[in-house]
Amino acid sequence: MTDRSNLAAIVALVWVFLLDGCGDAIQKRRHELCTFALANRQLDPSAKIDGRIAVVYLGGGYDPKFDNGCDIDGYSGGYKAEPRYFPVQMYAQSPDEIDTLVIIALRKGDFIKTTNFQMTQSVGWTTDVYAGQLVISVINFKTSTLVQNSVRAIDKIPDKIEAKDLIYPKRGAPDHAEYVVEPKIDDIRSSLREFSTDVRND
C-alpha cells in the first residue's frame, strides 16, 4: 500500500470515528422509532409517562418506506432543537435510556367536505378534507408494551392549509388530493396531559 493510500485510509478511519462520536444516537435509530412495532398490549389505567422518554409524531402523510412525515420531538431537520412537549431533561439521550416511548399519530377520520386548494393561480387541487384522529400511545419501551392510549377527533379546519400537509394525488386522479386536519400543538399537549403532569405550557 502506498503512502498516499495509507494516508487516505487513516483519514477515512478518523472521519468515521468523528461521525460516530458526534452523531446522535436517537437520530441514528430514527427509522426504528418511527416504525416501532409493539410486542404486547397490556393497558393500565394508572400508567403514566415517566422515566426517560422519546416522543415520535407521525403525520397524516407518513410514509414508513422513507420515514417521511415522521418527526422526533427535540429535533428539527435532523438537528437537536428545543422539545415542544416536555422539559428537555426528561428526554433520553440514547435508545438504551428510553423508558417510555410516546407515539403521537394522526389518522384519517370521518369525511368533512370537498373543497379546492389553490397551489398557484393556475394550479389547484380538488381536495377531500377529513377529520383527524389524534392517537396517543404510551409504550413501555423496555418491554415493547402498550400501556395507555387515547383517541381524539380533530375537526376544526384551519383558515390556511399548507401545501406540505396535502396528501398528493395518486395515479389516475391527477388533480385530486386529500387533507387530514392536523392537530395544533395545544391539542397534542392537552391530550398528553391525560398521562403526565409534566407537559409544557409554552
Classify the beta-strand content into a percent band: 35-45%
N-to-C SSE series?
HHHEEEEEEEEEEH
Helix amount: 10-25%
Taking the sheet with the most strands, its summary is: 8 strands, mixed
Q: Outline of this structure?
A:
The protein has four helices and ten strands, in the order αααββββββββββα. It is α/β, with parallel strands linked by helices and 202 residues long. The strands form two sheets. Strands 1, 2, 3, 6, 7, 8, 9 and 10 form an eight-stranded mixed β-sheet that branches. Strands 4-5 form a two-stranded antiparallel sheet.
Provide the fold topology.
Layout: H1 3-22, H2 25-28, H3 30-34, E1 40-41, E2 53-63, E3 68-72, E4 75-76, E5 79-80, E6 100-118, E7 124-140, E8 145-154, E9 166-167, E10 176-180, H4 185-192
Record keyword descriptors for this entry:
alpha/beta, 8-stranded mixed beta sheet, 10 strands
Report on this model:
By secondary structure, the chain is of the alpha/beta class. It has one domain. The chain has four helices and ten strands; from the N terminus they run αααββββββββββα. The strands form two sheets. Strands 1, 2, 3, 6, 7, 8, 9 and 10 form an eight-stranded mixed beta sheet that branches. Strands 4-5 form a two-stranded antiparallel sheet. The longest helix has 20 residues. About 10% of the residues have low confidence.
